[in-house]
Amino acid sequence: MYFSTKSPFTSIAATLFCMICVAQAQFQFKDTYPTIRQIPPIKPEWRNLIANASITNAPIRTRTPDGNVDMSTVTDDPYCTWSFNRCIAKDDLYTCPTGQYAVTFDDGPSEFSPKLYDYLKSINVKTTFFMVGGQVLTHPDLVKRAYDEGHEIAMHTWSHTAMTTQSNEEIVAELKWNEQVIREVIGVSPKFFRPPFGNIDNRVRDIAKALGFIPVMWTHDTFDWGLTAPGSTFNVQWISNNITQWGQTNKTEGGVSLSHDLYNSTVDAALNYIPVFQNYYDLTAVGQCNKVAPYKESNSTTSSKDAVSPSGDESAATIMSTPSWALLLFTMILSRFL
């Protein structure tokens, strides 16, 4: 049995097969989203969400060209600003209990994320991914895969801009657009968010709390982003060496680390240093180790799709089903030449 490579019907069959593959993979978003990597506008109805909230009157900080915050002239900080002195507020999540560790990832998903998902699946480890809105919009299939495989899906704002440099309305827009695009894909709304650059103060916390979100910080930075700088001399072995030092306190402490899955180099690094973490800790996800539900729609601390039922409303994203006519026609043509 074989296809004649010269037959026009073979080309038709191949084309139909490709159409079926595309139909299976294409994702339909219900809403129109803001431009990626740019500070989004607020929806008018979102303004009411913080209208009665008690919000700290902290100053709006100066922004650097790369979107970070300029703290160079700040000499005192009564607003618990992480960027100033790594201040942790009482409702922040930032660590895990003794002997447990969450190796978390920011900025994704990206085209390099699947090999990280593959590896985590192979070692049966679930973790927390803090996803940027524009990346979710670009790679909804990867968001859905991570969620379906039991990882916690969390937020990293829409544009990845330092939050203390933004107005109250801009902060609302960053978080709500991030929430909405993720909810379209997985059917539930994340509770956890990580401020870009760790830039958060009590004003940002108050706004986030009014919207139902919980900040997640970290105890250790892998500094894997050093691998991505042009001409970088960053040695990936430094990460493993640091983890070995952190692991010496595993009898008295747990932790949460900061890593990234936006670049090939940072994902490759993670595949090498995650086994070092396993020498000292039981690896877990942030919500799981803190016994806090990662999604607004459930009290469960298990992140898989089996534990959290999607809301099922019309805004939930859908994967196009394979058209029955395409399957039937493909089968008829295939049977003609087999």
Structural overview:
- The protein is of the alpha/beta class and 338 residues long.
- The protein has a domain at 95-290: Alpha-Beta Barrel (TIM Barrel).
- 35% of the residues lie in helices and 10% in strands.
- The chain is built from eleven helices and ten strands.
- The protein has helices at residues 8-25, 82-85, 113-122, 133-138, 140-148, 168-186, 202-210, 237-246, 264-278, 286-290, 324-336, and strands at residues 27-28, 100-106, 128-131, 152-155, 192-193, 214-215, 220-221, 255-260, 282-283, 318-319.
- Strands 2, 3, 4, 7, 8 and 9 form a six-stranded parallel sheet that branches. A two-stranded antiparallel sheet has the order 1-10.
- Helix 3 links the parallel strand 2 and strand 3.
- Helix 3 (113-122) runs parallel beside helix 9 (264-278).
- The longest helix is centred in the middle third of the chain and has 19 residues, at 168-186.
- The protein is globular and about 50 Å long.
Features:
globular, alpha/beta, two-stranded antiparallel sheet, disordered N terminus, six-stranded parallel beta sheet, TIM Barrel, 338 residues, disordered C terminus, single chain
Shape: globular
Order of helices and strands: HEHEHEHHEHEHEEHEHEHEH
Note the beta-strand portion: 5-15%
Largest sheet: number of strands, sense, barrel closure: 6 strands, parallel
CATH C-level name of the domain at 95-290: Alpha Beta
Using the coordinates shown, work out and report the CATH topology of the domain at 95-290. TIM Barrel
Within CATH, the superfamily of the domain at 95-290 carries the name Glycoside hydrolase/deacetylase
What Rg do the Cα atoms give? Answer: 22 Å
What is the percent of helical residues?
25-40%
Which secondary-structure class do the elements indicate?
A: alpha/beta
CATH architecture of the domain at 95-290: Alpha-Beta Barrel
Distance between the termini: 5 Å
β-strand number: 10
Uncertain runs are: 1-24, 306-338
Mean pLDDT score, rounded?
87
Number of discrete helical segments: 11
Protein name: NodB homology domain-containing protein
GO cellular component, one term: membrane
Domain NodB homology: 99-291
GO molecular function: chitin deacetylase activity; metal ion binding
